[in-house]
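User: Hello, can you help with two protein structures?

Assistant: Certainly.
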Amino acid sequence: MMMSAPSMQQSQIAPGFLRPASYQHLPANIFPYTHPAWWLHSHFAVGGWSPLQRLSGMLTAHMTQIAPQAGFPWHPHRGLEIYTWVLDGRLYHEDTTGGKGIIEAGELQRMFAGDYIEHQEINPFDEPARVIQIWYVADPKHRGLKPHYQQAGRGDLPKQRVGDATVYSLIGGGSPMEQHMAGSLTATTIDAGGTTTLALPRPGEDLFFYVTGGTGQASHGGQPADPLGVYDVLLARPDAEPITLTAGPDAPLHALSFYLPSFLGTD
């Protein structure tokens, strides 16, 4: 099936799913898990069967676990910019631009589909691969660009220490990744037992925060702390009170922070 991007439009969120609030915690189990084939498990925070169908130009943000010796054979896309962030294991990519290679854990790949591209994503190795894949609608001003491919290792990505956390800039913020969509993305690793302050979105943006590993808690505005586990989501507007994140005592907490054109609205 041709995987094409629809035109840019407003966010699509199931009626009544979100509260009119500047900060919200959404546990992983309210989002759909899918197991469409023996070799594939996915958690859809955005897109798929999620109540968060689209957040601004982001069509999907989902975790995919691919069993060894399995994967997605050749298939087409158009009108999309697709980012793949490998969490565990390795993934082999090949596309019709000639782009190809192995994406290791901690590496980021970007594929711009243009008017048409075909690619395959295969796990030919002996261990499972776990990846986060994000699809964006390409900004209309870039639609005439030819398809192309880019990959960056963890050492290529700008990083900074914020409290007890290391924050990597994946999209924007000095990242070497080109971008043809609106928004930015960071990856945060909080040391075991450590704390950090989550950067709030700027005016005109909202935050979609997605836990990708570990456990911990989020404290906000003097309210009881929200427990955090894998694939939990936090949403925040620029007017939110400061959000403090604390990792569990036994392992780091890993998460992605998506800063997107406003999708939450106001109270």
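That covers the first. Now for the second protein you mentioned:
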Amino acid sequence: MKITEVKLGRISVPLRVPFKTALRRVDSVEDIIVEIVTDTGHKGYGEAPPTGVITGDTIGAIVGAIRDHIAPKITGLDILDLEDVLQTIQKSIVHNSSAKAAVDMAVYDLYGQYYNIPVYKLFGGARKSISTDITISVNDPDVMAIDASDAVKRGYDTLKVKVGADTSLDVERLSKVRYAVGKDVRIRIDANQAWSPKEAVRILSNMWSRGLDIELVEQPVKAGDIDGLKFVTENSPVPVLADESVFSPEDALKIMHMHAADMINIKLMKCGGLYNALKIISAAEVYGVECMLGCMLEAKVSVNAAVELACAKKIITRIDLDGPVLCSEDPIIGGAVFNEKEITVSDEPGMGIKGFERGRLIYI
């Protein structure tokens, strides 16, 4: 099964409501789709979102990395020489983790198709279904309370609440949300690097003392401030999840060794795909560090790949794969079934993605 062509396309999917964090506002998913074609006629699919404020990857950068660097090096390679193909992807260009992730997942898709096995079973097959949280965008506290209530009415029992856009309002935001949803709903918060270490400890301690019952805080400080992250972990009553601080297996190992965070958030777009994600998981299993499997603002192709991984490994204990349910529609055929919080992985060979509704994938 040799790679004969790497095609690129664009897909646009509007969101139900604007997605707002301390770093950005997004109104629609605008992603690059990778389609790898082989001499056997099989096709594998991948996806990369332009998340410049986090990964540094823009539409132009993703297209250029794949078209000019990755595709020429993997064309002609045999999918069955999996290790060689995956290492070639990683070595073809520095950084550009989203481009690498999109090609990486398409390769795994084809590998599973060849052996007639779903990728989640290839990786371990721990479970058939998972439950995701849903993101509550940062807004006026009263608006966030309404959004949280609506999410609970839709069946969600775990909310990821964005904070940090105006730190003076963060405690009020969480107070309003907690009052609106009651005590039985799990609340995670994500500061997206917005706080200083001492500010984080002060805010989290205040939330704790008010009985807001926060399950965890995601990336409270700047990505590169590992010492600051460790300070928060050691002094906060709320468990700390490292996100933007973890791009590579080396980053994850450093944080685990320093105990700079209680948990690790794995995102395929940060680490460069399933190949490196599996390395992070292996390290986490050794250190006994629980992981979250998360996503950027992505449509179903790439989130589906994350679902395959999440369903494969027990060390992944928390799921933040709400990208497709934040979209107002799903133009992608096949793959996992997203029924609000409940996600069921496909038993089709590979990743199970069959294609796109007519006219929705625009080749470039």
